[in-house]
Specification:
Layout (H helix, E strand, L loop, with lengths): L2 H11 L4 E7 L2 E6 L4 H10 L7 E9 L8 E9 L4 E9 L5 E3 L8 H12 L2 E3 L34 H13 L6
Length: 178
């Protein structure tokens, strides 16, 4: 089944949830409201003619100053049985930066959702273990947000782990080759 046909099936089944369909270079993106995203994903997974049994990727996007809502959660789905794919984008507003978890549909979403939470601050409701995965628990902020500071001016208040990493790097410099 072609991605455009899949997008049409989604539009027929969830007309009030689908905001738009975009096609670029043979790839189709379906932009949706976030409210019923778990239900839509369950439909895409369970419907025999679709059977999207593989979540290739889940990531966040920050459109600060470019469009509203500010965030999107992007799902890349693939059907191993039918060998077709689709991209679903769920819009997530900054004032309610949360969306339903899809871990109960694809277990592999676990770490993807945690990474998105860690780096963008988007909370996945119903996730079995919503905590940081890449950064330390005491880290402040979400580094992939467009408004995250690129340099620190905190001096002595700088995160202690950063200073430790710099010291270790300095010690290990003697082991570098070339």
């Amino acid at each position: 089944m072609e991605p455009k046909d899949i997008a049409d099936l989604i539009k027929d089944r969830y007309p009030s949830e689908l905001k738009e369909t975009k096609e670029f270079r043979g790839q189709v993106s379906v932009v949706m409201r976030k409210d019923r995203i778990k239900e839509v994903m369950q439909y895409l997974h369970d419907t025999p003619e679709l059977y999207f049994n593989y979540l290739e990727d889940l990531c966040g996007v920050d459109y600060l100053g470019k469009k509203e809502p500010r965030f999107e959660v992007v799902y890349h789905l693939f059907s191993l049985r039918h060998r077709h794919m689709i991209r679903i984008k769920a819009e997530v507003p900054e004032e309610d930066a949360s969306i339903e978890s899809v871990v109960c549909i694809w277990a592999g979403a676990d770490w993807h959702e945690r990474e998105c939470f860690d780096l963008f601050g988007i909370d996945f409701k119903g996730h079995p273990d919503m905590r940081r995965i890449l950064l330390p628990e005491d880290w402040e902020g979400h580094p992939l947000r467009k408004d995250y500071p690129l340099q620190s001016d905190q001096g002595e208040k700088e995160w202690h782990g950063y200073k430790e990493i710099l010291e270790i790097a300095k010690k290990n410099k003697k082991y570098e080759v070339g």
